[in-house]
Write a structure and sequence with these properties.
- The protein is an alpha/beta fold.
- It is about 40% helix and about 20% strand.
- The chain contains 14 helices and 15 strands.
- The strands form two sheets. Strands 1, 2, 3, 4, 5, 6, 7, 8 and 9 form a nine-stranded mixed beta sheet that branches. A six-stranded mixed beta sheet has the order 14-13-10-11-12-15, sandwiched between helices.
- Helix 5 packs across helix 10.
- The relative contact order is 0.12.
- The structure holds adenosine-5'-triphosphate and magnesium ion.
- Magnesium ion (MG) binds next to loops.
- Adenosine-5'-triphosphate binds next to helix 5, strand 11 and helix 12.
Length: about 375
């Protein structure tokens, strides 16, 4: 073994009694992410991933960094536990050119090693200074910290820490159902909820032939991007053409958006309940469009049969876009597409709907029949 990956997780949230559940889940999620590319185990508040012979370490790190619950990961060189070898390895593995100040930090887990941690740091510091005499030791604010860990299996050497996603391990916070469109917002909302540890399914409404096969593929691509973080996701694809056409034919135009959103909410809640989810999630942000005013959200929520979380509610579009870029969904989200919502959108949607008026309009259609029909025709795709 030439290199090993060290994985650190949040220590504050670990103080409670659930510590072991959290750790075991994280280890098993990391195992699932790396497959047989690495052997994963835990020891003293660190998780180790030992790459298999010939494994692509960069690719492994990328997979690991997507797993929720990891604060940071480091890629470390592994060598024999003697000072001379460690010194040589530090000089060949850590890039010190262009640096002015450094410090060495040692952890000695293997107490049989003859030198104590500060002594090891001093020795290795000496070796570095011999080769780079212009460098200075700065223990307070060094440009680079050379870490040495002396463990049973060998000495580990590393410098850079790579930030992970943070959050809680997937599976530690129940299950939710994301309403996933092809836009920018809903994948970000899904990411934010999933980061808190929820398992996630998604429901997508599409209206063929008004929306294309391509638009559906794009949504599946977005689900695949989210699945890199969550380990997998089931997408429930709901055909929504008949429902929309019936509303358009029978209900006042200005109510169409809100009626459609109420029907989407009810269908999503039922699919969520059937799949064991305890909440639905949308990408709404207050005031962004007509259906996202306080009044419209209130009227939509009135038909929800479980909590609806809107993690983006207080965020500006720019903040949302920044997250979308970071998580890798932005480029896919901005591909041109049609959404079923935009196709039947009225010219002058009500922005302050009143529930009594909306219920009157709703009475003009067979809500229950349309919901049943949609659920019957739903197809389920695992990504
Ligand atoms: P997004 O960028 O996520 O598409 P948006 O700003 O376009 O959001 P709306 O079209 O009003 O806003 O949709 C608000 C929310 O409703 C979306 O974030 C998503 O959660 C849900 N939604 C909209 N269209 C669909 C759809 N076709 N299938 C499933 N959910 C949808
Ligand atoms: Mg949208």
């Amino acid at each position: 073994m030439q290199e090993i990956i060290l994985i650190k997780y949040g220590e504050i949230i670990l103080k409670g009694l659930n510590r072991h559940i959290f750790e075991d889940r994280l280890v098993s999620n990391i195992r699932k992410a790396v497959g047989d590319g690495a052997r994963v185990y835990k020891s003293r508040a660190t998780i180790y991933a030992e790459p298999q012979e010939g494994a692509d370490v960069d690719a492994l790190i990328q997979k690991i960094l997507h797993v929720f619950g990891i604060v940071y990961a480091v890629r470390a060189a592994v060598c024999e536990k003697d000072l001379k070898t460690i010194g040589e390895k530090v000089l060949s593995y850590i890039n010190l050119t262009g640096k002015k100040t450094f410090k060495v930090e040692t952890k000695r887990a293997d107490k049989t090693f003859p030198l104590k941690s500060p002594e090891i740091s001093a020795e290795i510091g000496g070796i570095i200074l011999e080769k780079y005499p212009h460098l200075a030791v700065d223990v307070r604010n060094p440009e680079i910290t050379v870490n040495v860990e002396i463990r049973e299996a060998g000495a580990y050497i590393y410098a850079d820490k790579i930030r992970g996603q943070g959050g809680m391990p997937t599976g530690s916070a129940g299950k939710v159902m994301l309403l996933l469109s092809g836009g920018i917002d809903s994948p970000v909302a899904g990411y934010m909820m999933a980061r808190r540890g929820t398992v996630m399914d998604a429901v997508h409404f599409f209206s063929p032939p008004f929306t294309s096969e391509k638009a559906k593929e794009k949504v599946l691509d977005l689900a695949r991007i989210l699945a890199r973080y969550t380990g997998g996701m089931r997408v429930h694809i709901v055909p929504f053409t008949k429902q929309q056409l019936q509303m358009k034919a029978k209900c006042p135009a200005e109510h169409l958006t809100i009626l459609m959103r109420r029907m989407m909410m009810q269908i999503a809640c039922r699919i969520a309940a059937e799949s064991g989810a305890g909440a639905v999630v949308t990408g709404e942000s207050l005031g962004q469009v007509a259906s996202q005013t306080l009044e419209a959200i209130g009227v939509t929520d009135a038909c929800a049969t479980m909590p609806c979380f809107r993690p983006l509610i207080g965020m500006d579009k720019e903040d949302i876009i920044a997250v979308a870029r970071r998580i890798g969904s932005f480029e896919t989200s901005i591909l041109p597409y049609e959404d079923c919502c935009t196709i039947f959108v009225p010219k002058h949607p009500t922005t302050k709907p009143r529930i009594e008026k909306i219920l009157e309009s709703e009475a003009l259609i067979d809500v229950e029949g349309l919901i049943q029909k949609a659920i019957e025709e739903t197809v389920h795709i695992d990504v």
